[in-house]
Amino acid sequence: MRLAVLGCIIWLSFYPPFTGSPERLKGHGGRVIASSEIECLAGAIWAEARGEPTKGQYAVGHVILNRLRQGNSDVCSVVAHPYQFSFYTRNYQWKYHAKQKEIAVRLLQDEYNGNRQDFLKGITHYTNVKVKTVWMKAFMVETVIGNHKFLREKR
């Protein structure tokens, strides 16, 4: 029993803390977006793109929301997917600033209201301009924003 409780505590420690009540975002039947979803998106934007121009921070947010559209249940499950975001695999301490929260809220509102303008047109991958790995062979560089290459699957 103690081992099961300890396992649950360890598992839950990998998710960002839920602080506050859900924020109601209008649209799609009054869907309620939990504060944890906002925190996951803001934290990911901060961790992956805090030194980037605002457009680059939005681009990272768009990539995460494009992955959400591929059948994930929520933003946190996208961010927590194994080996997808380098910050998450390094015992990330969840933090972000007001700018990243503002971007996250705006993107989530637009997504759930059905009017998100995805200037990346569905791109689901990006990497630092200095990184070259085997998996990138299946992708072509669509655009570069700041220090990130945004990649589209080759067809």
In short, what is this structure?
It contains 5 helices and 5 strands; from the N terminus they run αββααααβββ. It has helices spanning 2-12, 35-49, 54-68, 75-79, 98-113, and strands spanning 23-24, 32-33, 125-128, 139-145, 148-153.
Give the topology.
Layout: H1 2-12, E1 23-24, E2 32-33, H2 35-49, H3 54-68, H4 75-79, H5 98-113, E3 125-128, E4 139-145, E5 148-153
Antiparallel strand pairs: 1-2, 3-5, 4-5
Helix pairs in contact: 2-3, 2-5, 3-5
Q: Explain this structure to me?
A:
- The protein has 155 residues and is of the alpha+beta class.
- Helices cover 40% and strands 14% of the residues.
- The protein has a three-stranded antiparallel beta sheet. Strands 1-2 form a two-stranded antiparallel ribbon.
- A hairpin with a 7-residue loop joins strand 1 and strand 2.
- The protein starts with a helix and ends with a strand.
- The N terminus is likely disordered.
Helix content bin = 40-55%
CATH superfamily of the domain at 17-121: Cell wall hydrolase SleB, domain 1
Q: Architecture of the domain at 17-121, CATH level 2?
A: Orthogonal Bundle
What's the pLDDT, averaged over the residues? 80
- Name the poorly predicted regions: 1-24
Shape: globular
| SSE class | alpha+beta
CATH class of the domain at 17-121: Mainly Alpha
The termini sit apart by 51 Å
Task: Provide the succession of SSEs.
Answer: HEEHHHHEEE
Count the strands? 5
Q: Number of helical runs?
A: 5
- Major β-sheet annotation: 3 strands, antiparallel
- Indicate the proportion of strand residues: 5-15%
CATH topology of the domain at 17-121: Arc Repressor Mutant, subunit A
- Strand order across the biggest sheet? 3-5-4
**Cα gyration radius (Å):** 16 Å
